[in-house]
């Protein structure tokens, strides 16, 4: 789960830039928050990201415990070009990790969360 400061902006990023689907969204008026679940398919078949918007909170301190989300992609270089064309922020260009062969890139979402993209041919092998 990621806490976001502007739910519409965050949904647009994950949907339009990372090409995820908005699976479901719900509001809790009593406790003043909205949840949105996005993923690459039905959540019964794969992982989803939960975005939480606490009404009136526009910014969060990420702290030093959270690192990043990792997503495997079939075409790392093509994915980065598509993200760039959609207005996404590539913070580490695609290429091999230092001292290894695994190809990765990093993207930043509108709230500053880091997302690592891993070439799927290497995704199950660990970094190296």
Commentary on this structure:
With 128 residues, this protein is α/β, with parallel strands linked by helices. Helix content is 20%, strand content 38%. It contains 3 helices and 8 strands. It has a 4-stranded mixed beta sheet, with helices on one face. Strands 5-8-7-6 form a 4-stranded mixed beta sheet. The longest helix has 11 residues. It is globular. The two termini are 28 Å apart.
Please sum up the structure shown:
The protein is an alpha/beta fold. It has helices spanning about 5-15, 75-85, 120-125; strands at about 1-5, 20-30, 35-40, 50-55, 70-75, 90-95, 105-110, 115-120.
Strand order of the largest sheet: 1-4-3-2
Summarize the main sheet.
Answer: 4 strands, mixed
Total helical elements: 3
Please tell me the overall pLDDT.
91
Q: Structural class, from helix and strand content? A: alpha/beta
Helical residue percent band:
10-25%
Q: How would you name the oligomeric state of the polypeptide chains in this document? A: single chain
Structural shape: globular
Strand content: 35-45%
Strand segment tally? 8
Order of helix and strand elements from N to C terminus: EHEEEEHEEEH
Radius of gyration: 15 Å
Cα end-to-end separation: 28 Å
Low-confidence stretches: none
InterPro entries: Glyas_Bleomycin-R_OHBP_Dase, Glyas_Fos-R_dOase_dom, Glyoxalase_1, Glyoxalase_1_CS, VOC_core
Pfam families: Glyoxalase
Enzyme class: lyase
GO molecular function, one term: metal ion binding
């Amino acid at each position: 789960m990621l806490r976001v400061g502007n739910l519409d902006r965050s949904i647009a990023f994950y949907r339009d830039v990372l090409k995820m689907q908005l699976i479901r969204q719900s509001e809790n008026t009593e406790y003043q928050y909205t949840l949105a679940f996005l993923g690459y398919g039905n959540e019964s078949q794969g992982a989803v990201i939960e975005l939480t918007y606490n009404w009136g909170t526009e910014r969060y301190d990420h702290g030093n415990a959270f690192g990043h989300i990792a997503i495997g992609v079939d075409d790392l270089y093509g994915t980065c070009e598509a993200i760039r064309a959609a207005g996404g922020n590539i913070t580490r260009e695609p290429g091999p990790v230092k001292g290894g062969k695994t190809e990765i890139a990093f993207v930043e979402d509108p709230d500053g969360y880091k997302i690592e993209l891993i070439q799927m041919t290497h995704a199950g092998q660990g970094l190296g």
